[in-house]
Amino acid sequence: MDRRVLLLLPALAACAGGPPEGVAAVPWDAERYLGKWFEIARLDQSFQKGLEQVTAEYARNPDGSIRVVNRGLESATGRFREATARATFMRDPGTASLSVAFFPPFSGGYHVIRLAEDYSIALVTGNDKSYLWLLSRTPTLPQATVDEWLAFARARGFEVDRMVRDQPRA
């Protein structure tokens, strides 16, 4: 499989479905969510092994869907890899629950389960609790903030002790 597609997000996780039991996608303004996000920590997935400095950029497509561009530095080669996907709203656009397809017709769930009021931090899961990402508008977060957000996830049954932290950016 082409390494360019082995990047961020649960979009490669079989069929799109709702968030896992015990968590819910939050209400949101999708327009405010658009833009660049930095991965702070993740439950590692096979398609992300060896990646660091991972980012995701979201932009509106002319048809109303969302263009997703994931980018990460492959530590073994020192080269950046990129993958592009199309995300559509699973239900109401006012709920942070998307179906993301890197390989149509296969898609995966993308569910924001916690979002800072100012849209500066997001906690995202896939269709089950083996997927979790802590994202930020900035490349780093204070440790106390990371701890607080991961405690939220832990209380909902995520194995946050297995999370991989991104490397500081130069």
Detailed description of the structure:
The chain has a single domain, classed as Lipocalin (Beta Barrel), CATH 2.40.128.20. It is 9% helix and 41% strand. It contains two helices and nine strands. It has an eight-stranded antiparallel beta barrel. It is globular and about 35 Å long.
Question: Topology of this structure?
Answer:
Layout: H1 30-33, E1 35-43, E2 51-60, E3 66-74, E4 79-89, E5 97-103, E6 106-115, E7 121-125, E8 132-136, H2 143-154, E9 163-165
Antiparallel strand pairs: 1-2, 1-8, 1-9, 2-3, 3-4, 4-5, 5-6, 6-7, 7-8
- What number of domains? 1
Low-confidence stretches: 1-14
In this structure, how is the largest beta sheet organized?
8 strands, antiparallel, barrel
Global structural class: mainly beta
- Total count of strands: 9
Any guess at the CATH architecture? Beta Barrel
Mean pLDDT: 89
The amount of helix comes to under 10%
Q: Give the SSE order as H and E letters.
A: HEEEEEEEEHE
Q: Report strand order across the widest sheet.
A: 1-2-3-4-5-6-7-8
Tell me the number of helical segments per DSSP (H or I, 4 or more residues long). Answer: 2
| Percent range for β-strand residues | 35-45%
C-alpha end-to-end distance: 30 Å
